[in-house]
Specification:
Blueprint lengths: L1 E9 L2 E6 L2 E9 L2 H10 L4 E6 H6 L5 H10 L3 E5 L5 H9 L4 E4 L1 H5 L1 H11 L4 E8 L2 E4 L4 E6 H10 L4 E6 L11 H12 L10 E5 L7 H8 L3 E4 L1 H4 L5 H11 L1
Parallel strand pairs: 1-4, 1-12, 4-5, 5-6, 6-7, 7-10, 10-11, 11-12
Antiparallel strand pairs: 1-2, 2-3, 7-8, 8-9
Helix pairs in contact: 1-3
């Protein structure tokens, strides 16, 4: 299972929120590049970079930070937050993103999102399926849609989407553990009764990871990766533990 630390950006700074609430912002570092370099120094190869300003503004904002991290580390970066147009996507990839995550756009403008999957391939486009009470949330989690989580994932699975990041918003930033049952349900329902030409879902767990012991459990469920944010920043999970976990898997 891939270990993917998260860096969330507001005003150019590394922050974390609780349950997606911008009023709960806590600044952890003024220099996101410094944080990214520390991750890389501990053998981490992947980074989940979220432009929270972009998510709120509905267009890419912090692409300079993406460019800085991409040019000064070897981390493979998936970038999300505010990607709404073909131009946003071009900027993200030109700035060094290895993959992009689309959440709100997949709900509000599915035709554009599908065109991205067709143009760039399903190894470059990640579906952001962030949910509250199994309903998809959009616009930096400021709005809840009427779309049910699992049918939403299945719809895009039929369109060729493979990578899915699922965050249970009620867990995010709360350090109370991830939604094991929800991830089990997604994996079971999306991998059972395979429809012809359906791709296998590569589920990336996100939200609530608070102890190192939760990682093997997520791997056992079949998660392809896990995103860890506040668990690292609050020293609940050490970078040394993650380094040893990665080394054991290689």
């Amino acid at each position: 299972m891939r270990i993917i630390p998260a860096i969330d950006i507001i005003d150019g700074k590394c922050v974390r929120l609780s349950k997606g609430d911008y009023n709960t912002k806590k600044i952890y570092n003024e220099n996101p590049l410094e944080v990214a370099k520390e991750f890389e120094a501990h053998g981490i190869q992947y980074l989940h970079l979220v432009d929270l300003d972009g998510a709120k503004s509905k267009h890419i904002v912090n692409h300079r930070i993406l460019e800085q991290i991409a040019s000064k580390t070897n981390l493979k970066i998936d970038f999300g937050g505010g990607l709404k147009t073909n131009d946003d996507l071009r900027i993200a990839f030109d700035s060094g993103a290895n993959q992009i995550t689309g959440g709100s756009i997949a709900v509000k403008n599915p035709d554009i999102f599908k065109s991205w999957v067709n143009k760039f391939g399903n190894d470059k486009i990640i579906l952001g399926a962030d949910a509250h009470n199994e309903k998809i949330a959009v616009s930096g989690w400021l709005e809840e849609s009427d779309q049910e989580l699992i049918p939403f994932i299945k719809t895009y699975q039929k369109e060729g989407v493979s990578y899915v990041i699922c965050t249970d918003i009620s867990k995010d930033g709360m350090l109370e553990g991830p939604s094991f049952e929800l991830y089990k349900k997604i994996i079971n329902e999306c991998q059972s009764e395979p429809v012809e030409d359906n791709v296998a879902i590569k589920l990336i767990a996100s939200g609530g990871i608070s102890t190192f012991e939760e990682l093997p459990k997520l791997a056992e469920l079949g998660c392809e990766g896990t995103i860890i944010g506040k668990g690292i920043y609050e020293n609940r999970i050490s970078l040394k533990q993650l380094e040893n976990y990665i080394l054991q898997g290689t």
